[in-house]
Amino acid sequence: MAHLSQAEVRKIAHLARLALTEEEIAVFQVQLSAVLDYAALLNELDLDDVQPSAHAVTQQNIMRPDDVEPSMALEDVLYNAAETQDDQFLIQSVLDE
Amino acid sequence: MDYATATLTELRASLRRGDVTSVAVTEAMLDRIVTLDNSLRCYLTITDELALEQAAAADVRLARGDDAPLLGVPVAIKDIIATAGVPTTAGSKILEGFIPPYNAHVVDRLAAAGAVILGKTNTDEFAMGSSTENSGYFTTRNPWDTSRVPGGSSGGSAAAVSAGLAFGALGTDTGGSVRQPASFCGVVGLRPTYGRMSRWGVIAFASSLDQVGTFGRTVADCAALFQATAGYDRRDSTSLDAPVPDCETLTGDIHGLRVGVPREYFVEGLAPEVEQAVRAAIEQLAALGADVREITLPHTRYGLPVYYLIAPAEASANLGRYDGVRYGPRVNGKDVIDTVEQTRSLFGPEVKRRIMLGTYALSAGYYDEFYGRALKVRTLIKQDFQRAFEGVDVIAAPTSPTTAFPIGERATDPLSMYLADIYTLPLNLSAACGLSVPCGFDSAGLPIGLQLIGNTLDEATVLNAALGYEQATGWHRVASPVMASGER
Questions:
Q1: Structure ipTM
Q2: Residue B144 CB partners (closer than 8 Å, separation 6+)
Q3: pTM above 0.80, yes or no
Q4: Mutate which of A5, A29, A35, A93 to test chain B, going by most B C-beta atoms within 10 A?
């Protein structure tokens, strides 16, 4: 039985960059464990000789001509950004001083 | 004739004959939306000005004898499909106010076909849900009983078509999100083969499963929208470069059609009245000359767990892009990581739950146990369908195990909500296509859907089977109470 600890829930939340409340952590601990228990149904199958399928329809190496085409206008690209400066997306400093 | 309650194909004929103008019909539809949508809540955004402009332009073209396939016909678009200059939220607060700079390919195709866009319809957030209760904005009501859900995630589109608030609509179907709400709302909903419809401009949920689908009040309406929007698009690398067959001149003749009935779809959990209606529908197919036989899809019971590992895994990767930098609102925190985390708190609970599940399934130490196993079982499910289609042309089954459930009934129990899609999601894992067509009502007067599943790229065969069934039974002529209330 898959039983996630609260520490595991916190770790997953950190990996996913989700700031969960204590209440959410408690709820997700129960709900995610229930879904993972259900997923344990797959353990009854012998899958040693089965190839994985990542897609519904198998297609490979779809090529197109490498033609130069106009890009989207800069104002359109920046239009939905929360903050911009000098025609660039503005975020807080990433590197320490 | 009340044009607001005509079918899409009837309206199209009237427009071409000049019996009515697109502006008059569009105004009537917008009036209906103003009157009825305050209580139904199908639409997140009503594009009234755009619709009237498009209708006026369509009338000019109609007067010239232009016969573009949807010229002047008012339709609706699920709000997960990008519309240039028109807000597109995917039902999420994290995209509140987002205005796409370009149209999805299918929206460009609708425009080229001359359609009039009435607005953007409600959806579970990022299409994750089966009831629209996970929308970040509000819950859409079922036009047959407004205390019940319309199904989901494309519940706004299904309800709008059922209530006569659009002549047809686009949705998306990742695990049943077109077929299940079509079933709950008593309309026809087609989920084409993966790769048949371009995903360009469709906000990604689970990229290997997502596909645009079409809603109509009749099979012909649904087919007309499919015909106008399907086909190859080089901007989507998973788009299939295959010709789209003519689905608008189907006869409904199903003599000799080999129909398989999968025994694994008639099991515990299937509501008796749904089973009764679906079995009666299958008898009707036999009466129309189909060769009906029992088949087996042995890995059906694994579909749900496979889906709930693969779809969240893909979603957790796709939704990584919502960080408040390039689009959507930003919630500023103490540093850049905190800002990203605070911004992502705008996701609703179901989206967070699936991101968590997917992140776990892909994380070091668990990848092989969960995601890796799920991909292998996906192969077995695909092979089930491939083997079945060696012996039959169409698979007939229920669309959903129950009719529309009351709002709130399953909202706090994710697993019970997931079960609403148990008969639809195996198809998404495979290369099949399918639709839901109305096949009767339960004792509470709620619609029941018959699911018809076809082989890869064989939408014409499932549409033709559905057409034959529809012609013989006429369930589509029973209007929802909301639709009927608009008739004068």
A1: 0.95
A2: B162, B185, B186, B404, B445, B446, B447, B480, B481
A3: yes
A4: A35
